[in-house]
Amino acid sequence: MPKVPLSWLAESVDLVPGSSAEDVATALARVGLEEEGIEGAAVTGPLVVGRVLSVVKETQSNGKTINYCRVDVGAEHNDPPGPGHAPDDVVEFPTSRGIVCGAHNFVAGDYVVVVLPGATLPGPFPISGRKTYGHWSDGMICSSSELGIAELGLGEDHTGIIVLHSPSGESDEFGTFTADDLTVGQDAIALLGLDESTIEINVTPDRGYSFSIRGVAREYSHATGQEFRDPAALEFTGTPGAGFEVSIEDAAPIRDTVGCDRFVVRILRGFDPSAQSPAWMKNRLSQAGMRPISLAVDVTNYVMLELGHPLHAYDLAKVTAPIVVRRAQAGEKLTTLDDAVRTLDPEDILVCDSPVEGALRGHGARPVGMGGVMGGLDTEISETTQDVLLEAAHWDPITIARTARRHKLGSEASRRYERGVDTALAPAAIERALRLMQEFGGGVIEDVYTDVNDTVAREPIVMDTDFPGRIVGVEYPVEDMMGYLTEVGCEVERDGEVLIVTPPTWRPDLSHPIDLVEEVARLGGYDSLPSVLPVAPPGRGLTHSQRARRSVARTLAENGLTEVLTYPFISEQRLDDLQIPAGDPRREVVRLANPLSAEQPLLRTSLIETLVDALKVNLGRGAQDVAIFELGRAFQRGDIGEVPTSYSGAHITPDDVERLNAALPGQPRRVAGIICGSREAAGWNGPAKAFDWTDAMAASERVARECGVELEVSAEPHMPWHSGRCATYRLADGTFVGHAGELHPKVLETLGLPARTVAFELLLDPMIEASEGRIVAAEPVAAQTLAKEDFAFVVPVTVSAGDLVRVVREAGGDRVEDARVFDVYAGAQIGEGKKSLAVNVVMRAADHTLSAEEVLGVREAIIAAVEQEFGAVLR
């Protein structure tokens, strides 16, 4: 996202008088450029340029060496010495301040940045005089990090102070400014640009021209009507002709698109490689988020930020004519500017020079740069460069985007090229850059330059005059539409009820009538669009499914779980992490043709697969007790149908939509949760109580209750759950619903999750469908006395508590109001392969109090049924 310093913006467009940074951001938002943040002045109070007069090193008792300095901060700020000054200090340096400093990257005579008492540094950190290490320190010599400007490129070691200029050349940061730039006592806030407001803008992919001061200034002019001055409107000094030879040999274009359709080069001879970038240029680069490096590199970056056209500078002595632009061949390698050796792909487009000894045999030319992405190390500008070959080219956006992603090499240049760069801008960008290099580094610009131009003129777009009104719902006068489109740079002609619009070269996103509609709407003002709320049709409300899903989410939230929304994309490793066995239907994944991330190319087959990522994020941020859930969809490849390739007519019909839906993979609605940590925190009344697998089961039962169904529970091992602590749920008709329980220890270990983490996942759709149309009646309050009986049955260990309860309920009939297992015991007294299940049974009749005989009859029926079903023995 580009950062736009307001003073730089004001050079290309008049800001509305009295506008603040917030006002400018608001104006840009009106035309679709949203601000991500505003950076303002972080330092207040006196911050000045000082000159170090003396440095006395003193070793303290703790072994630390400090410097006691006398610093001249200008007549206005050289106050009389404070308490603690030694008389000889005052005599030798009567017009100065004494300052204690722990840094050692400066010497006497250096110009530094001094913050004086009464100022406030970022933090906030108020500055005042104080006694320290036996001296009165009357201010502070500042480092970049203390000023909050570590990114300004004022030194690699941000623990050292900022040396603006070192006449002796002894300091680490010599050369940041020249002596002519500095005056003792001058305001360092303005000097370092700390009073500059900078707006960070969010640029959508179709608005690549806004990655420049030029583009943002034009948009601000659209929003406010202020005059726009094009910084690319230069008077050219050169003539295109037979300059440095260039040949574009993209003989086999990819996707029927030529990788490079314009290539401009021009030479600057006699350049001074030791020349420094001016302070104002360094400040602007830093404010825009780029680190100053050297004059040649700084100028190319500056022009790229200003005009939006990336440039690349070669050391002419290291390049042999002709330059050849071609696709890479298999096996070729290139060492890029970041000193990485990269194996090239045949789709990569390269800048090469003529064959030299040592070039790869048979490839015809040596790669010296990866076109539109990054240059090569062999031909880079260095401290010995005197002749500069400057390149400005136009590259195919898709080719650049794929190359940058393939090599994981996103650069400032590739970000602009993949969004589209003005095809007419290359000569102006070179002219602007070479003039700046010549101004500050000397040299002679060759008059004749090379411009291989194979660009194609923009095709006109034909649009009906009523089309914007039909799309937006607002009638726009034809004259207004023509004015808006002309304002963005289009050539507009009217032919009856049709507009013929030729987009400008800097707007590659304008290619269809619908694109022009967007321009009309945004320049007409999004804020002027009327707000019309649709009227809900009578007799409708939420569907049964919608009510059920809302109830499920509400009850889970009321019981302490937090709803999250995760992306449905997973890596190929995730199914292995969860130890999903081979042949499992969850292995039948849907693979995306164009995933957002190459590391996550699959769609999830269960919600647990992505919920674990949300859990890990919370744990990574220090959370210990986490309970989260999600309502969403998972996807099943086995349900993908045949995708239709033709439709009923000119417009898609409901039948066509049904055919498309039938081709989609299965994506049933689900609800899942994952829980770890403590249910109750430790307190004065006892230790913490951890979540366990029964909490996952309880959450599942709450979901079923809100859906209006009863679930049958069984114990069936199912990864990624623990084989002994996993419940499987089905509807009464046997329809599978889901699982709940503790996750398997191996899964937890692989994923790096806490031990005893529990989870549940249920299919919502079958539960909601099962309760469709069902009337839920309130149960009357019983008026009769209840009877209780406890049973302890010895059964085989394979008998589940759920099966036992089911048999008990069936045997007791309508006399059994409730039955639940309250104890499980296994041991030597029971016998090998056996366990004891204790069941509490509540009995009651609706119309009378049960007699002893009736209770006894129910008891005997329960015992007989359990003995017959399981071979149980009553203890």
**CATH superfamily grouping of the largest domain:** Phenylalanyl-trna Synthetase, Chain B, domain 3
Number of helices: 23
What percent strand? 15-25%
Q: How would you sum up the global shape?
A: globular
Low-confidence runs of at least 5 consecutive residues: 83-88, 150-158, 357-363
Overall pLDDT confidence: 88
For the sheet with most strands, the description reads: 7 strands, mixed
The CATH architecture term of the largest domain is 3-Layer(bba) Sandwich
Cα-atom radius of gyration: 38 Å
Describe the strand arrangement of the main beta sheet, using strand numbers: 30-33-34-40-39-38-37
How would you characterize this protein structure?
The chain is of the alpha+beta class. The chain folds into 6 domains: 3-39 and 199-224, Phenylalanyl-tRNA Synthetase, Chain B, domain 1 (2-Layer Sandwich); 47-191, OB fold (Dihydrolipoamide Acetyltransferase, E2P), CATH 2.40.50; 239-453, Phenylalanyl-trna Synthetase, Chain B, domain 3 (Phenylalanyl-tRNA Synthetase, Chain B, domain 3), CATH 3.50.40.10; 461-527, 2-Layer Sandwich (Phenylalanyl-tRNA Synthetase, Chain B, domain 1); 544-642 and 657-770, BirA Bifunctional Protein, domain 2; 787-874, Ferrodoxin-fold anticodon-binding domain (Alpha-Beta Plaits, 2-Layer Sandwich), CATH 3.30.70. The protein has 23 helices and 44 strands. The strands form 12 sheets. The protein has a 7-stranded mixed beta sheet with strand order 30-33-34-40-39-38-37, sandwiched between helices. A hairpin with a 2-residue loop joins strand 28 and strand 29 (498-502). Helix 2 (21-30) packs across helix 6. The longest helix has 19 residues, at 852-870. The radius of gyration is 38 Å and the shape is globular. Mean pLDDT is 88; it is low at 83-88, 150-158 and 357-363.
